[in-house]
Automatic annotation (TrEMBL):
Segments forming domain GH18: 11-182
Origin: domain of life: Eukaryota
Native source species: Caenorhabditis tropicalis
UniProt name for this protein: Glyco_hydro_18 domain-containing protein
Signal sequence, start to end: none
Amino acid sequence: MFTLDLVDRKTKNISGVLQDAVLRKTLIQSISSFIQEFQLDGVNLSVESPLNEQQQLFVETICKEIREELNELQFSTNREDSYILSLVCQREVLRLDYDKLFKYVNFLNIETDNFYAPWLGFPSNTMIGPPTPLYSGHGIHSSHNLDTIMQYFSCETKRPNRLNIMTEFGGRLGKNVIVPTDPSETLWMTAEDNRKKSRRKCNRMERLCWKFSFME
């Protein structure tokens, strides 16, 4: 399988494609051709969380049309197993009709790999902790853990067997970490808020033709 990122990143290019039936068909045919050429088992879509009914319709429409294209590809190639279509979902309340969505999508891949990460502008930006805590959190983030999120999606979708978790295989280096008063409390620590310094560094790099956007 391969992953296709359909997140706009403030460019509006993707939303323009999704709203245009001709461009959308070209995109879907390209997905099908890519799968066939490299003998892949399907595609994993990464989309933005729908904020309204129109965006919800776009997600459902693109999934429906990709599924129809994959079914045609399966028939034309005499493939025994159906192609897989999965969807990456952010770990939040989603405006999605799961009964309708699961007619086209095999799996939902829940983003459970970045609970405590240095995303600029987020309250947990300075929190140092495991990327995917299993059962615990810290303070106001006590519900930010794998168990709570997967219980929520299991209840919402009523299909726990079609949910996947995302885990991070790697390490993170925390800088400017504040040493805890109690030496035994090393699981949850905080770091100095470094947003201003990071912004100045990015401004210097933008003058060298690099472009950055801050999530605030």
